[in-house]
Specification:
The structure is a homodimer.
Chain A lengths: L1 H10 L3 E5 L8 H18 L9 H24 L5 E5 H5 L3 H16 L3 E8 L3 H7 L1 H4 L26 E4 L9 H10 L2 E7 L6 H4 L9 H13 L11 E5 L4 H10 L5 E3 L9 H5 L9 E5 L1 H4 L1 H4 L9 H27 L2
Parallel strand pairs in A: 1-2, 1-8, 2-3, 3-4, 4-5, 5-6, 6-7, 7-8
């Protein structure tokens, strides 16, 4: 986690902006502008060899490119004040393959702007399959590539996803985690394992009482600590972080003590109800140890600005998205500074 | 599950072929042939507007198209003897966006050949994010589409993924399940929730003893039964199935009794050690209630045939893949018929 911690320190800002667009969160004129571009490109490409797309694919491509333009505006607006973005792949996957392209483009663009990119993918599977998912971090194995003659952009590995860390689901046990830990070590990246999620029905599973007297999520917390124990960085945190929801402040504080070498990714701030006071206990005595995510609070700030007009051009609407997101990100930073940097 | 059960009855074959390719499982000349095609297409496209691909993307595209050609050979070889395929998205996701294209192409091609397609995606997230993942089943919402003028291929919904069922991870609780159940009802599809996975370290989590005296996976089994209770089909099984590994025969048999209205997807047959005897107890008295997956046992059968020669052409190698896969699928069918249709 040293790279993430350094970025947080440089900005004096333990917050991450969640890039989780939906159709309702993007001003409609952005999709319209993208649609015009796609139509022009489609006319041009239809002279070529592969322009056959179904109506659904065409609609999905338009949404996907709209998401990317929206994200680019947000990234440009916040890259000098926040250390990281969290990109929720579900929102992109909802659009099929075109959405996945927009996801990787978003991750790559954010990295180019100097941001640490957390891919919120919540993957988890067994042995060889987990190893395949771990290529989110490790990229294409060069030894496995049948086209070893192709030029490499990077000396160490062929990155395909452009993520610096990913989130992982622990339900499959260690088999599902080890390949990610190995990949994270190889590539100086990190993972965050789901421990205590912010949603109401997380209690169905995570609060179950075990025969040992612990809650289930506490047992998972101990496993996560173990899984990270041989990858401690210079800042005292391992490469294996934990997802701990802002909506559980007492539990989060107890977990902070229970797992002193585990960095927390804290979702649920803002729209889901978590406040700066709620998350303060999830930080260590030095104000490190956690990064707090806000998605709608930042990227939907334009809707609450009162400045949006349906007659705006796409560029005007994106300018509003950007200025509202920047102000919301500054407000969040300042709230967290007051609560955390005691 | 009625559609899947009908397909199984029609074939008298409760097995599903897992399309989980890796670089080592595809004859190398298939990648070479695809590479030549890609080079030609690349030359043609580079006259156009968007041919800029990195070396990694080029290598990934070659692998992805090789996977699709490999899958097509297997699908053509088994479509008249097996009712379903299970496509493990991790193997494709390992190749980045190009892999995702090959995944959806594989699913669509399998559906076109009449196969029921299980997307092994093991997704799971909270409310609005789970709803986004549920578009695997429900496709692009037409109301949400900004290009409502685009023609629809299907009256009911715009399918993007071409899956008939998907696998789901239960760690987030009901919030993460409900959107999938709703989507499955809307589109006459199904889901399979992870209950007891086939991998060794599943015990880290799934065998934990609860204060109630049950194992954790038994509690999850009861939740899964509940989640399906209002979607029973004509055959007595709900739309919410369970993943129960072949490597746990006694537990599988006990789960069969515990959840009489839950259809099982049973991985772990063959390469992972499960036998027809091991899985027999996971079926009901009528020989229904489960479908057994084999991946490497079918798609890697060509490697054990003794007939492969490195001098084979790509077409010759794919013919061998096809004939070996067909024979292995027939053998598995016959083993299951003996063990299950008592």
């Amino acid at each position: 986690m040293d790279r993430l911690i350094a970025a947080i320190k440089a900005m004096q800002n333990p917050s991450v902006v969640g890039l989780d667009p939906t159709v309702a969160l993007v001003p409609p004129q952005v999709f319209d502008a993208v649609g015009d571009d796609l139509d022009a490109a489609g006319d041009k490409a239809s002279a070529g060899y592969d322009a056959s797309e179904s109506g659904a694919q065409r609609a999905a491509s338009r949404l996907a490119m709209g998401y990317f333009e929206f994200n680019r505006a947000v990234i440009d607006a916040v890259a000098d004040i926040v250390p990281a973005v969290k990109v929720q792949i579900a929102m992109y996957e909802a659009l099929g393959p075109a959405g996945i392209d927009a996801y990787t483009m978003t991750c790559e663009y954010a990295q180019q702007q100097g941001l640490y990119v957390i891919g919120d993918i919540k993957r988890g599977d067994i042995g060889s399959t987990a190893a395949a998912y771990a290529q989110h971090l490790s990229g294409l194995p060069q030894t496995a590539s049948p086209s070893a003659d192709a030029p490499h952009e990077d000396d160490s590995y062929d990155d395909l996803w452009h993520e610096d860390a990913v989130t992982i689901n622990p339900y499959l046990g260690a088999d599902g985690i080890t390949p990610f830990v190995d990949a994270a070590k190889q590539t100086d990246k990190g993972i965050f394992v789901l421990v205590r999620t912010s949603n109401p029905s997380s209690k169905d599973i995570q609060e179950l009482e075990l025969a040992s007297g612990e809650c289930f999520y506490e047992h998972v917390a101990d496993l996560v600590s173990d899984w990270g124990s041989d990858s401690l960085g210079a800042e005292g945190y391992s490469r294996v972080g934990a997802v701990v929801g802002a909506t559980h402040p007492q539990e989060g504080q107890a977990l902070r003590e229970r797992m002193p070498h585990t960095f927390f990714l804290v979702p649920g701030f803002g729209a889901q109800g978590g406040t700066a006071q709620d998350v303060a206990g999830m930080f260590d005595a030095d104000g490190s140890g956690a990064i707090v995510n806000s998605s709608r609070g930042i990227i939907a700030a334009w809707k609450k600005s009162g400045e949006y007009r349906s007659g705006m051009s796409a560029d005007e609407a994106l300018d509003l998205v950007a200025s509202a997101a920047r102000q919301a990100a500054l407000n969040m930073r300042d709230e967290l500074r007051v609560a955390v940097y005691r």
